[in-house]
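Q: I'm building a small set of examples for a reading group on sequence design. Run inverse folding on the following structure and report the sequence directly after it, with nothing in between.
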């Protein structure tokens, strides 16, 4: 199969070159150009045909690359792993809706994939859909409570939704999980800063009972 593709490509080149020769000959026979004009027009048309062939080949190669990358199977890989990999790539390219569709495909094949839920939450959060993001993050941490990234993202989403009490609880949970997982120091410090800030804004004193 691989030997057929180059042969087909060369047939296209031969066709373009024959078209260049035929065009020049037809113009000469119809007395539209003189012999001298034909002698300089022919190499120009042949060169142009070659350039057209090169351009079409490059366009065909570029358009085939994403399909090949997406369909390339990893030895021993699960059916959903390519969707997860492609979804992460789309997420990094800020193609959030396309990325979300990839993570949804993962969840069709592996409904308990906590990573897919976390990335699905990120896809929603990047579009400002914080309630959807919260739901996805909560599913991720329910499936895997030790998943520090989802804990961090859930705490952030809760703050975006103006739920300081819930966010404070989640930041504390993230801090415990993150320290156990040796999370990056900047993320741990960020969590500590958020805990301090939220503790200052939340009134922890219960109101006195009223007797009348």
């Amino acid at each position: 199969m691989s030997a057929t593709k180059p042969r087909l490509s060369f047939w296209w080149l031969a066709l373009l070159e024959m078209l260049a020769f035929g065009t020049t000959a037809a113009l000469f026979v119809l007395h539209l150009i003189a012999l001298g004009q034909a002698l300089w027009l022919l190499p120009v048309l042949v060169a142009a045909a070659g350039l057209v062939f090169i351009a079409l080949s490059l366009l065909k190669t570029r358009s085939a690359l994403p399909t090949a990358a997406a369909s390339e199977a990893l030895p021993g890989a699960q059916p959903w792993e390519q969707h997860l990999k492609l979804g992460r790539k789309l997420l990094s390219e800020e193609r959030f809706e396309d990325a979300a569709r990839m993570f949804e495909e993962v969840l069709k094949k592996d409904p308990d994939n906590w990573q897919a839920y976390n990335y699905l939450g990120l896809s929603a959060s990047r579009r400002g859909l914080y309630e959807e993001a919260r739901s996805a993050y909560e599913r991720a941490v329910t499936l895997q409570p030790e998943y520090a990234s989802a804990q961090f993202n859930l705490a952030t989403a809760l703050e975006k939704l103006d739920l300081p009490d819930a966010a404070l609880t989640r930041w504390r949970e993230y801090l415990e999980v993150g320290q156990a997982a040796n999370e990056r120091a900047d993320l741990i410090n960020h969590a500590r800063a958020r805990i301090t800030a939220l503790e200052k804004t939340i009134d922890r004193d219960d109101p006195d009972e009223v007797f009348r």
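Confidence is low (pLDDT under 50) at residues 1-8, 61-75.
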